[in-house]
Amino acid sequence: MWREKSRQKSLADAVVAQGMGQNERLRRIDALIDWSGVEAQLKGIHNRREGRPAYLPLVMFKSLLLQQWYQLSDAELEEALADRLSFRRFVGLNLDQAVPDHSTLWRFRQELVGVDQKLFLAVTEQLEAQGFALKRGTLIDATLVEASVRAPRDQHSHPGQGNRLDPDAQWTDRKFAGSKKSYFGYKAHLGVDHGTDLIRRYALTGNKTAESAKACAMVCGDEARVYADKAYHTVELLEHLAHHGVGDGVMRKNFKHSPAVARRNRRLSPVRAAVERTFALMKSHYRYRRVRYRGLLRNTVQLALMCLAINLRRAVVLSTA
């Protein structure tokens, strides 16, 4: 059985002053969501320690959100849960309850593989139902993220993919200021709500996957328009938008002697460029210049948790605007 959530406060909790260990932002995030919907998606997950009853899945899941917000390793998260009253309150642990250790946290994260999309939707759909997403447009784009392992010395000896330590990581080339640079790792694809910066769709692929290959998956279908740069100008995406009745805000590939294309691109460029704020946040605050783990599935879970963490904090800001 899972360790049951205590219905009554322990004696230790009772003697702690009411105002101690309060974190207003965590309290407001906790109040935003009906966590029973998240628990329903966690029912099939097992995380039993040898000889001990396992922790409630929701306690573990909320602990991993704390890990994203505060950029903690598994060992640091274990220490913080033991030390910080506000963390215990957020995840639902009384003062007399033991905290999950770092290996338990690691194993639980492994169990989220394949469930991450359902968990993401369980939270994000609640935020959308509360009106946080404007749905007047979706900004789609992708960013490169380095692998957690050292890149092979010679990319030509590993065409299209990585080394034995992380076979899912891939090489790709990018041109900047006329020079070409090679990158080894992954590509994070996002669909971001225009005007609120809430992340509505996400995907992770190897670097060799073209941005346009995930374009249709980033379209929600209920937005007024989709905005994207020239890399997304494909017949497949335009037909997909037309089929769902979504407006076309995709920049066109440059054609010589076409002033109309140039004017269109100039008009759309500053709108679609707003997605860069989200990528900047991910790479600065969440340190997402490099993935944490090896393999596509583990790193997809990391991306999902980060997107959820960003959305929940963003929702708190929007609720006070």
Question: What does this protein look like?
Answer:
- The protein is an alpha/beta fold and 321 residues long.
- The chain folds into 2 domains: 11-111, no CATH class; 118-311, Nucleotidyltransferase, domain 5, CATH 3.30.420.
- The protein has 12 helices and 6 strands.
- Strands 1, 2, 3, 4, 5 and 6 form a 6-stranded mixed beta sheet that branches.
- A hairpin with a 2-residue loop joins β2 and β3.
- α3 (35-41) packs antiparallel against α8 (116-129).
- The chain is globular and about 75 Å long.
- The relative contact order is 0.14.
- The mean pLDDT is 90.
Task: Write a compact overview of the structure shown.
The chain is 41% helix and 15% strand. It contains twelve helices and six strands.
Amount of beta strand: 5-15%
Q: How many distinct folded domains?
A: 2
Helix content: 40-55%
Taken from the alpha-carbon principal axes, the silhouette is globular
Q: Average pLDDT, to the nearest integer?
A: 90
Count of DSSP strands: 6
Radius of gyration: 22 Å
Q: Sheet bearing the most strands, described?
A: 6 strands, mixed
Instruction: Compute the separation of the termini in Å.
Output: 43 Å
Structural class: alpha/beta
CATH topology description of the largest domain: Nucleotidyltransferase, domain 5
Uncertain stretches: none
SS element count, helices: 12
| Proper CATH architecture of the largest domain | 2-Layer Sandwich
The CATH class of the largest domain is: Alpha Beta
What is the H/E order?
HHHHHHHHEEEEEHEHHH
